[in-house]
Automatic annotation (TrEMBL):
PROSITE patterns per record: ABC_TRANSPORTER_1, ABC_TRANSPORTER_2
Domain of life, per lineage: Bacteria
Domain ABC transporter: 6-249
Gene Ontology BP annotations: transmembrane transport
UniProt protein name: ABC transporter ATP-binding protein
Record keywords, A-Z: ATP-binding, Nucleotide-binding, Transport
Organism per entry: Nakamurella antarctica
GO molecular function terms noted in the UniProt entry: ATP binding; ATP hydrolysis activity
Family the entry assigns: Belongs to the ABC transporter superfamily.
Amino acid sequence: MSLLSVRDLDVHFAGRGFRAPPFQALQKVSISIESGKTLGLVGESGSGKTTLGRAILGLTPATGGAIEFEGRSVLGLSRRKRRALSTDIQVVFQDPYSSLNPAMTVESILAEPLQAAGTGRRDAVIRIRSLLDEVQLPVDAGSRYPSEFSGGQRQRIALARALALSPRLLVCDEPVSALDMSTQAKILELLIEIQATTGVAYLFITHDLSVVRYISHDVAVMYRGEIVESGPADVITTTPTELYTQRLLLASPVADPGRQALRRAAWKALPQRPLGVGVPETAITT
Ligand SMILES: Nc1ncnc2c1ncn2[C@@H]1O[C@H](COP(=O)(O)OP(=O)(O)OP(=O)(O)O)[C@@H](O)[C@H]1O
């Protein structure tokens, strides 16, 4: 049984403006995530990645389909049951600047979820120490404020807070997009290490295929609210069959200028007709 199973999920938003029809942000989306594994969710801006993450977290209501966590339906749960589930599913957002309360010390930020779950003071102190160690921050970080840390360090604090209650699934919504390349690599390394020691699963949302290739076991590609292609990361990020994924792949930058020029030429050679969902194309090896 999968840890998380999403089947035929639909999400509509009310139309903007007088008599505007509802906007369908997700259409029959199906994904599954195994315990301890990472599913990378890629797609360009506006394709529906965050909406899917929010629906899984219970922050955006689904209008159709099913979401199951460990075989149990999570849609339509009472508030109390949903709260119980929120210890199992946590989130890390893109922006470590706005997601941490600047008026609270790191210790109080990490204590918050622990106190809400009824952890006693002494146990909370021990847990906070071990969390700081887990995300490789010094113990004295606890008495400092978020503004005293770099972007990468703030993302480590946000990660520690998300891990406080030992979730089974972490929704990572563009967690490294606001960071420079070398900090990105360090945070990705850390996420991989944490997964190896805790067995947490990730839904890793990004627009960047090079990031997704690095961290994911499986990849699902979104386009206009639909999953157009999914499968093992090494297949999807090297020999995708969908034209949309091929374009995404060739648009993702590589460090070697020679390879980059080849990619640019290959991208230009792709059919530039409008994309239809489910259009099979010849595979491209990069
Ligand atoms: N609360 C909302 N009300 C109306 N429309 C919304 C709402 N939230 C998202 N949308 C629309 O749904 C579509 C998908 O948005 P979403 O944020 O899920 O995309 P995304 O792939 O995560 O994009 P990005 O990478 O830029 O964050 C967009 O067209 C967006 O404008």
